[in-house]
Give the backbone structure.
Amino acid sequence: MTVTGAIFILLGLVLTGGGAYLASLGGSLYYLVAGIGLLATGVLVFRGRRAALGLLSAILVVTVVWSVIEVKFDWWQLLPRLDIWFAAAVWLLLPFVDRRLGKQEGAADVGRKALFGAVAVTLLVGVVALFQDYHDMHGEVPAENMAATGEADAAGVAPNDWSAYGRSGHGDRYAPAAQITPANVGQLKQAWSFHTGDFKGAGDPGEIANEVTPIKVNGMLYMCTPHNIVIALDPDTGKEIWRHDPKINRDAKRYQHMICRGVSYWDVNAPSPGGTPSAPAADAAAMECPRRIFAPTMDGTLIAVDADTGAACKSFGDNGVVDLYKGHPVKTRGMLMPTSPPTVSQHMLVMAASVTDNDSTNEPSGVIRGYDPVTGKLVWNWDPARPDETNPLTEGQTYVRNSPNSWGVSSVDEKLGMVYIPMGNETPDTWGGKRNKNGERFNSAIVALDVATGKLRWVYQTVHHDIWDMDIGGQPTLVDIDTPRGKVPSVVATTKTGNIFVIDRRDGSLVVPAPEKPVPTDHVAAGDKLSPTQPFSALSFLPDRPIQETDMWGTTPFDQLACRIIFKNHRYQGPFTPQTVGEEGKGAIISPGPLGIFEWGGATVDPVRQLLIVNPDYMGFQERLVPRAKANAAGGSGTEMGLQPQTGIPFAVEISPFLSPLGFPCQAPPWGYVAAVDLKTMKKVWMHKNGTTRDSAPVPIALPLGVPSLAGMMTTGGGVTFLSGTLDYYLRGYDVRNGKEIWKARLPAGGQATPMSYVSDKTGKQYVVVMAGGHGSLGTKMGDEMVAFALPDGVAPAARTARAHQAQ
């Protein structure tokens, strides 16, 4: 009893002290009251008084009532509010403890009965909560959508192939193959796997990641590794056919990332929108490398290799290499990092690149360039800081340093002759007092350029004067949407803010309204000025209300209390809260944070069923601006978390996830979902929390809380959508009709890559393939394994029956 009493007193002191501090910040008084009650209970236990039973029962009942008032019957919200109290009550009721609490006071023993009653009430509330669901949205796609037939405009991609990062230049990540259906997906088995042999080296940055989505075309599967080794595989066996190692410069000290999301394919004999190949037949026959793989490298080059043999295409650029640093005013190795593949049209390669995030104002330009796919000659350049000058630079000219860049994958409509660029920001991200006036209109925008000339056709900005790193990382998806006035050729852009912007891709007009609404502009950092309004799309996954103190989470009342204190110590005014110049432990809560509700995975669209399917995440961050003198004394992290130097502006920024002292998210779960939108009505159809804590919690327990995912989804003609990017190591399959998880397979490492699917040219078998290689900055297990799944022989139904099954 001495030990029990001492523990109660110690916990009561912590709760009382923390509760008093929270109350002084204007937070809940509950913790102060409960702490005093626990202190008194501990003293009574220490002295062996049975009155401890009655007092603890009162604390438990009050806690239950308070918890239900705050969070209703939300099981995962109730658990950290009640677990310690429930365990303490059960402990005191155990016979070998109970008999040491003095003599029974009368036959009734009121205190013991009261505590039994409080435990029973708590159990009852817990049982009721187990059957409540406040987070999932249940629904079914209309039968009309599910029964739809017809072919999607795949921009010239053969039905069996996946010939670009998003399958085609439209970026819909839709495979029309229909062998795998909700009825048979449970029988998917691993067909083969391939190890690249490319692992993190001693000098590599922390954020090394295997984010590659392979492409299947020309009878081969093509992929790249984090160190930009290009590999061709047999699609049926996973056996290596060839590899090309560009032997990149790995000595740069300033690499923030080591990532390759994919490669691009070009075939001289592929028909152009006009129906003719890019070169006359005689020239094409004699041409070196008539089929090419184009790949970016982390040390700032674009390489071309023969798609048949892996040999360098020496007639392209300088012996198969184009130097992307050419024309840049800043040439420091490692500061220009093309992580995404170029966008390929029949007559143009469109290339962009990321730069070092939040490092300085002395960065390479964000110029977008168009190259001849045959010679590698620069045809045009579009620099957001000089948007009207697209002719190639003359000798001695340079692009504008630090203009807004694009680090994601672009999409192309060859019929309209436009390429659609998802724009990032002029770095640094968190203060914009000195930004380029011309470039400012292109930050966090969808930009449509003429693919032949690079001339600006239209621009739509999704965030004005972005100081929250709400840049657009996901590939815009091109889809013709059924509307009452007929099909509208649209571009669908997911964003970190959770807004999904649906735009007529012909002229940049909105298909879905996005009215401007007021946002906070007070407490802005000195020298900066914010936009008084921001666009809010009518199609949005932004939460219905801002974060509140009652949303704070934890595994126990103690780390939940710590999260409440952190929340109250930081400024938060909802979305677009400006960063605050603060002392240690104080700043602003930024939610959505820099990882956003939608990241580089974008969306998948079933153009036949008119469905958009996404995987939104909800994780806030803490950010504070640090005055230059203090920042210089502290130094910077050189990564995307911690203290970011941001030299050249008055402030550095400190960025960290919004976590409890125990390392758990302070925001209550779910943190990750899968969801679908009917594009005909622009209404959400279903939304379900997704993923478990099996591989991210200190103890490997698979709690179904719904965890974040990083990467995109892929959907198929058979009515199954796949996702591998969750923090637990699974590839999952979902029924597109209702979003229910209907299959999963354990992966050997983190699957932070977008899956893809194709059909074998030899056997007619459909495969689903994903890279399980992990992600350094997320902390998922690293690996090097590409894994393919397929149905056993004799299982797959005829493709024609798949849609009939889905329509039932």
Confidence is low (pLDDT under 50) at residues 799-808. Residues 189 and 789 are 5 Å apart (CA to CA). The first helix runs from residue 2 to 24.
